[in-house]
Design brief:
By secondary structure, the chain is of the alpha/beta class. It is about 40% helix and about 20% strand. The chain binds zinc ion. Zinc ion binds next to loops.
Length: about 425
Amino acid sequence: MEEAETLQLFNAPTPDWLRNTFDAFRHADIKTLNHGLGVDSTGLTHMILDEPERFGVAPDFSDFVVVTAILGDEFEDTNQDTENHLYGRLRSLGVRTVQVSRRGPERGDGIAVLSDTRSPTRVQRRGPYTLRDELLINGTIPTAAGGHRCSMNHKAWTLDTFARQAFPGARVGKLIGYNADEARRATKSEKNNKGAFAMDYPLIRENFDRARIARYVTDRTGVAWGKSYCSFCPFSGVCASRPAHLARLRRYPQVAAQDLLLEYRAMALNPRSKLYVTETLYKRVSDDQQVQALGEFEALLEQSDWAVYHVRRAYGAGRRESCQRGGHPKDCKRTGCHDASVKGAVDRSVETVATGSRHVALQRLKALAAEHGRPLQHDVAHPVGLDRVTLRYRPDKVYGTVEEFYVLAPAGIKDKEKERFPSTWGRIAEQGLIA
Ligand SMILES: [Zn+2]
């Protein structure tokens, strides 16, 4: 055991700057702990409740606040484990425990404080505006490109905003439960922080890697703590292994059905929007023979109001290397500077043309097919099928061109078009290439 832990020291070297964070942290006026409901921050919370002074926290917890950003799509077992194996201790010690979330689609909408108490009993299941709401309204899935933007917008921003609003003028310390396998995340987080908060990463300093902290939490609570993540996270290999995730969906078929609906709506607007890039969630769930989830998904489709959407996308072509090397401006519009095989900016317009029952909406789509003299297509990119009438077709990986179609999908996707869309669309539809 000791030998193994010594080895880990070499496997996960602590960055030099991390050795100095504790000093700044313990002099902060307020010490917050970001409790993300997962095993790492749960373990850290228990350690601090055991020995507050070792972590720079006042022995009566008067300067200590546990804060959770509620994303709205945690699995139920994670919520219950937190209630059953953490909140009791926070309650008995009278630790201030806060739950916050976003309030609306814009940052200007601010945050909602869902709970702020020294006797927490319940993890709030959702706030007024969740990541799933955002995805459903936009008809999209979380993008696998660009990392965990979901957690930046719905987690980090919410927590930072709370800290600034709740403790104006105070020097706020933040405990982050990154484990010793995540030194790179800590380095990145410290860089983004730019000195705004006195951050400390005790699990890294004390060399608790994922396996060690999981053992600690299980010893402590008697529970094999589940991973904390949104059920529709596209990083299934990162947030949870594929078998573990499928087992969880099997346990919560209603969640699986909601995620299947999310994927189906996104694929209606863009058949390339498979949740796992090359593979649909639908395929994984049906390969795993999750009959109940598939049945509940079908039921959701039947109960839904449906809509016909008019979708247009303008795909700008990217700049040639010669344009970039030549120091032309980023929005260079010179002839010959763009390449149809290089991806440029993509602008989208979505407009709801009709709503009604699935049958009524399908009749409307058929009428549009007749009106435009185009066939009604049944695209099996999604196994349930996507009913569509294509007006302008764009092959995969060709840029500097446009696509346009009518498609049938469950209602509720908001009409959306950037101000610049009409001019971008006009330019690419007529001249091609340049967005
Ligand atoms: Zn150029």
